[in-house]
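Structure ticket #2291
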Amino acid sequence: MSQPIVDFDQWWEKEGRHSPGAVWWMEKFRERQELLYTTFGATSPKDKVFAFFWDDAKIRIPGACAMTFPPRDSERSEWFTITNGLAQPQSPQDVTGPGAASGYGWEFALLTKEKTPWRTDLLKQLMTYVKMSRSLIRRGDRIPVGFFRDKLGDSYPWIKAVHEGDPTPVGEARALLFWPYMQHPGSFTTSVGTFGIMIATTITGTEWEMAKQTSSVHLLLLLFRAGIGQMSDPDRRPVTEDAKWLDEWHRIRSLATVEAERLLADYAV
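Resolution: structure written out below.
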């Protein structure tokens, strides 16, 4: 279900009061927030976030939310939605030194053609996933996902493998492929450390098998050459249904991984 939209300043102050060393916590949260504003522009709605709540205190991430940035002239044609909270240290004792990872070290993000309601649901699930699993999602990782219809006919994501007896998924997406944001592949630096942006890209079941047979690098290179890049679209058909891109895949899959990664790097800004 969609997350509540709240004013950022009110959310930030409310959440900060629950943290040890509230003044310190709010300063560091605000620092990262301003860095995201400077980099990506104004949110949509302006100065609003999608607030995340958990009933289980063990899962709760203070201040966790998602921010949505609209397309921005020639710089970005997609809607950009990013989590905020994973890279937030909870106290000064959690800061390990200059150049070290800040908090989790990553924030997750999605690129979509439209401002689709499922974006924030999926990002909250990703935050929950890493909190519960206590393991990093690294570049090139793939995790299962399906999209389903609720009683109102709206699409919602579910991070899990689809098994017999589960609801019937809609669309073609069956997994998420993770890779640093190619438009901002480097780290962002704050006073409490560095963090990067990890993009989750929906891939079809066919493409998931293609990546298993080669690597995520090979598949992502094909997606960029086909003009898809890191954009998520649960309804997109497998890229190799187009004969042109099937032929291109035959060429790409024969590449050594190091060569495929070198060619993929050409798409980084």
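Closing remark: The helical segments are 8-16, 22-40, 118-133, 205-213, 216-225, 243-252, 257-265.
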